[in-house]
Specification:
about 240 residues; alpha+beta; five-stranded mixed sheet; 4 helices; about 65% helix
Length: about 240
Amino acid sequence: MKYPLFVRRAMLLATSCALLQHGGLALAAQGDEAAPMVGTRPALNSLTPQPVVDALRGAASGSSSTASEATASEAQGNVAELMQMIQDTKLSELRTTYNGSYGASLFFYPREMTYYIALFQDKHFWRVIKSADAGRAEAIYSGFVQQTAQLAEVEIHRTQLQAQKAYIEDIIALSEDRAKRLQADLEVARTQQAKVNDYQRQTQTEAAALRDEKERAQAQLRQVQGEVIQLQRQTEMGLPGQK
């Protein structure tokens, strides 16, 4: 069933208003020099188009050489158009998804009821599709989102490996530091043990010498005591009570 032109325009306008109310975000105007990371969102006007060779490379997957060049040429044209409209702040950002440094965005141009679906990586637009069909635009956006997830797998895995490597290196550094401290303690213990052994040997030697001196002194004491007794007897000889 066909509706008059003004009715169709009114229906499209109502649809766009609903989309904007539920998912629309105002186009950012500030620049951002850093590459988009997981969980971050750069300003839209900081995104730049990829060189033609990169566009050709991205469009070449799964198609013939002639078809690839035509698709890349169309994509480059859409990229330039999208960039100009972003600079002129004519678009509303309906959806954006990031996976690593890859991202997909769905833009809406209310004046012409047109959607722009963009695929980008590291702040560079890679592919841009233009459509007036809301359902097709959502489907393309979903496909781009899946593509960013697949493309980011290696990048995310690399990030995880870098973190694991850094963690292991930290553990190694801590272990080496502990080993150095234990080695230092062991060296101190060995040095002190050597000193203790020397002290023990010296003490034992001195003790043995003292023991010999003690025995000689005791022998000398017994001799002196015997002499004293004899002299005492001689001194008291002939006195009463002396036997």
